[in-house]
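We emphasize that the prediction below concerns an isolated chain of 413 residues; any contacts that depend on oligomerization or on bound cofactors are therefore not represented. The input was used exactly as deposited, without trimming of termini.
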Amino acid sequence: MAKTEISTGLDIGSSTIRVAVVQRQPGVEQLHVLGAAEGPAEGISKGTITSIEDAVSSISATLEKVERMTGIPVEDATVSINGTHITSMESHGIVAVAKADGEIKQNDVDRVVEAAQAVAAPPNYEILHVIPRAFTVDNQHGVKDPIGMSAMRLEVDAQIIEGQTGQIKNLQKAIYRTGVSINDMVLSVLASSLASASKRQKELGVAVLNLGATTTSLMVFEEGDVLHTKILPVGASHITNDIAIGLRVSIDVAEKVKLEFGTAAPGEISKHDEINLKDVGGDDVAISRKHVAEIIEARVEEIIKMVDRELQQIDRSGLLPAGVIVTGGGAKLPGLVEIGKRDFRLPVTVGFPLGYTSAIDKIQDPGFTTALGLASWGSETGGSGGLLKKLPALGSVNDTVDGMRRWFKSLLP
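Result of the prediction step, given as a token string:
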């Protein structure tokens, strides 16, 4: 098996670490999933490392699981990055076309994207992704691929996604200590969108919502381009905390109540329906299941309101034809889609991985979209860098540009 055909995605979440190993088979468009594993995450909170030692042992244990499953050692991986420290901003780059005959070549595109990177980043921040949105050739706006056109001047509108240098370095340290080298670091929700949203949905206008344990990440696409990115500091573990406080039970009991009996739609539950906490390791006390559903509904509504405020900022509230795709472990909560449809006033679906073949049932899970999207990213770019400003230790500028070119072409309809 050629090494280049195999790609690994490593999704570092706050509650769970997931790994997916995929193989690209010649002549087959769909990627084949060779192995997938998940394990509890220690030493990680809100997407950032809180203890390098704990994170290293959690990551190592999950990697070992997938290595046993596939029989292939994991030497390098495309890794997710997440956390409320990540910010996004608009940028604009302008260059004069180099050739005397005015024909735009690849190096002009590379130079204009580089010019867009020359923004004043806040201190202690570094660029993770530069995502070209649309090019302007002289005064012709909205050009998707300017190569081969004639012009004096080339401009680009790009979205720049940045992360805090310290947080990025800590994540790198934790992974390097497991003996795995990093191909790329990719924003979690961007990886999720690769695995769960189709090109057509991204063209029409869609929001991908990754509901994790302690963060909720939003990425809005329109005409195939990233329109907006935001990471909110609330997630599914906040629902567990609310249940623990509301029922006066431990976090472990509250988590079991949420997973086994939880729903975000109290209207569908009879007020006589009861749960005995003894069944989930608590005291011998009966509680109303409707009461639990009301606690969950209140927190879910709050998360949806926060997301909708982000959509209002970009004038897309209730205006995305392909609606909202909810992925991540929190997407499995019953009743979530119904509340989403009502409050977003849009179509809402749970985002399952699209376009993979596998004998492993485990991957048919919205929680695995990020790990699979990362593996796809690694496969698409040959481990040479997607739309990523590379860290010096991770590869050359030429690799990055090649990878970026391929990835950008894959966005075109």
